[in-house]
Each structure stands twice: as structure tokens, then as C-alpha cells.
TrEMBL record:
It comes from the Bacteria. Keywords: Hydrolase, Metal-binding, Nucleotide metabolism, Zinc. This is Adenine deaminase. Signal peptide: none annotated. Pfam families: A_deaminase. Its EC number is 3.5.4.2. Gene3D superfamilies: Metal-dependent hydrolases (3.20.20.140).
Length: 332
């Protein structure tokens, strides 16, 4: 079996705020004079025991209070890249949650410019390509999302697309139909979290009403044979996050994860880390955990890596380059 860390990877489901390791959180708290509701790194890490998505989100939003300046966002992005590059990361389309920052008085431009500078340095140092996907918080009023899209006009050229995240159940995709239509009209790519905790109907709605090009998570689709056939027929990429699904108790154990069933149904599945600082691993760790728990073969790992390249928003030339890197790995 091959070293999975050398497999070239694209990561399509990564919340940059979810890469905030406890050590960096305390460093930034000290730098910015922000008080965290935990005594130290150990106490914060001990709080990473989640019952469900909401219990995670409560901690996730509380901890990101330490992110205040453009430099903080650059440091955060670079720290993520430093950990992921040795695990084979070659391309990343990273999510950020502007409303979680502008609501605390941080300027939208500082968030985007800070992350953008991290990505620029990542390209310069390691040749990693990528871009930013701005997510709307679905548990906040739709008007906030619309205002956020308007505010993004100053940085339109820095964005690949828009997404939808945060507490899913009770906040169906269709609420955001107009905002997504406006984003599409601007030429932005569109994706949405759907079918993480909520039923398959949310996945259908994301496709039919929002017009998404990828579904983030989407694992609940295994409970709907018609939907699975459609996802396979249309080759809709699913950005699956196996370690996240275990930590947020979407599945009891990795051994029971539906990844293999999705692959067997012919769905364009990709593997991603979601919020690696909170869920126990970066993108390479996810691939390795799948090998250990469910016997992911080298051929299946390569297929997941190809799927991620094909499902990415990279331009055709970059896709061809990345696919060639995957095939070179297969040829070994
Ligand atoms: N797994 C997840 N689901 C929904 N919103 C999120 N925000 C960060 N991680 C998330
Ligand atoms: Zn996510």
C-alpha cells in the first residue's frame, strides 16, 4: 500500500475558522487582548466533545472571537497550509463565514484580504492553488445574507463563489433562493451544505432551488435511492467529511460511514476535513483514517483525489495539471 500523504489532493470543504488550533487561539487571544472562556489549551481541547452540529457551532463561534485583524486571518490560513501541505494538499477552496466576523466589528475587507494573503503566500511557498468561498449563515436572517453579498462587491474579484452553512435543521436551502440567484447572476459559483443532519429533501432543494454545483456533506442522500441515482447521473460532487460526521455524531463510528455506499452508487464523492482543528485531522488524516477503518484501497483513494480535482473550480489547465499529478502517483 502506498503512502497516502504523497497522493496529490484538492480540498473542497474546509472552513478556515475551523482550522483554529487551541495553541493559536491562545496566542491570538494574548496578541489581541481577548479573553477566552477557558483557562488554557488543555481546558479548551477538553471541550471538544460534541453531541451534534449545534454543540460544535457554539464553541466554534465563541473561539473565533480571537480573530480580529487581517494578519490574524493570514496567520490562520498559513497555519492550515503548513499542516496540510505535508499531507499532499495541492489545491484548496476554503470557506469563510463573514457574518461571524462583521457581527463582531471586524471589517469584511480585513477578513478577505487576510485570508487572500495567506493563500498568496501558500502559492509562492508550496505551489498550492485555490480560492475563497463566502458562506452565508443559514440560521441568521436572509436579509443579513443579502447585505453580506452586497458588501462583498468591494472584493468580488477575490471570491470564487458562495456557500451556505451553520445550523441546518429548520433552515432549508429555499429560504436563500433570491440571494443565491443574485450570486449566480454575478457569475459566482454556488455550493451549499445540505444533507449533513437534515433529510434528503434538503439536498434536492439545494440542487433545484439554489442551483448548487456541489453539495457539501450530502451523506443523508444514502437514505433516498432516487436521489442517489440522480446524484450519480448528474455527477454532482459531494464534499464528504468523514471525521466530522463521527465527531458530530452523524454516524456512530467511521466503520459505519456511508462513503463506500456512495462510491458504489457511482456518486462523485470527495473527502475533506471540514473543521480539522476540532474534528481530529487534516485532509491526509481523513484519507488515512478511512484506510484504517474501512479498508480504503489505493485505487479508491486515487478515485477520491480525481473526483476532487474534477469537482473543483480550478481552471481547465490547472485541473489537467492536478489530474496528471494523481496519475503519476498511481503509476508510482
Ligand atoms: N460541519 C459544518 N456544518 C455546518 N456549518 C458549519 N460551519 C463550520 N462547520 C460546519
Ligand atoms: Zn462544513
Amino acid at each position: 500500500m502506498r503512502d497516502l500523504d504523497t497522493l496529490p489532493k484538492a480540498e473542497l470543504h474546509l472552513h478556515v475558522e475551523g482550522t483554529l488550533e487551541p495553541e493559536l487561539a491562545f496566542d491570538l487571544a494574548a496578541r489581541n487582548g481577548v479573553e477566552l472562556p477557558f483557562a488554557d489549551v488543555r481546558e479548551l481541547r477538553a471541550a471538544y466533545d460534541f453531541r451534534d452540529l449545534q454543540s460544535f457551532l457554539d464553541l466554534y463561534y465563541a473561539t473565533m472571537a480571537v480573530l480580529r485583524t487581517a494578519r490574524d486571518f493570514t496567520d490562520l490560513t498559513l497555519a492550515y497550509l503548513e499542516r496540510s501541505v505535508p499531507q499532499g494538499l495541492r489545491h484548496v477552496e476554503l470557506f469563510f463565514d463573514p457574518q461571524a466576523h462583521t457581527g463582531r466589528g471586524v471589517a469584511f475587507e480585513d477578513v478577505v484580504d487576510g485570508i487572500g494573503e495567506g493563500l498568496r503566500l501558500g502559492r509562492e511557498r508550496w505551489g498550492v492553488t485555490g480560492g475563497l468561498i463566502m458562506c452565508f449563515l443559514r440560521d441568521q436572517p436572509v436579509e443579513d445574507a443579502a447585505r453580506t453579498l452586497q458588501a462583498a462587491a468591494t472584493r468580488r474579484g477575490s471570491l470564487l463563489g458562495v456557500g451556505l452553512d451553520s445550523a441546518e435543521v429548520g433552515h432549508p436551502p429555499a429560504l436563500f433562493a433570491d440571494v443565491f440567484a443574485a450570486a449566480r447572476a454575478q457569475g459566482l459559483h454556488v455550493v451549499a451544505h445540505a444533507g449533513e443532519e437534515a433529510p434528503p429533501a434538503y439536498v434536492r432543494e439545494a440542487l433545484d432551488v439554489l442551483g448548487v454545483e456541489r453539495v457539501d456533506h450530502g451523506v443523508q442522500a444514502v437514505h433516498d435511492a432516487d436521489l442517489l441515482r440522480r446524484l450519480a447521473a448528474e455527477q454532482v460532487p459531494l464534499t464528504v467529511c468523514p471525521l466530522s460526521n463521527v465527531r458530530l455524531r452523524v454516524v456512530d463510528r467511521l466503520e459505519e460511514h456511508p462513503l463506500h455506499r456512495l462510491l458504489a452508487a457511482g456518486v462523485r464523492v470527495t473527502v475533506n476535513s471540514d473543521d480539522p482543528a476540532y474534528f481530529g485531522g487534516y485532509v491526509g488524516d481523513c484519507y488515512r483514517a478511512l484506510r484504517e477503518a474501512v479498508g480504503l484501497s489505493d485505487a479508491q483513494a486515487a478515485q477520491l483525489a480525481r473526483n476532487a480535482v474534477l469537482g473543483s473550480f480550478a481552471d481547465q489547465a490547472r485541473k489537467a495539471e492536478l489530474l496528471a499529478e494523481v496519475e503519476a502517483w498511481v503509476a508510482g
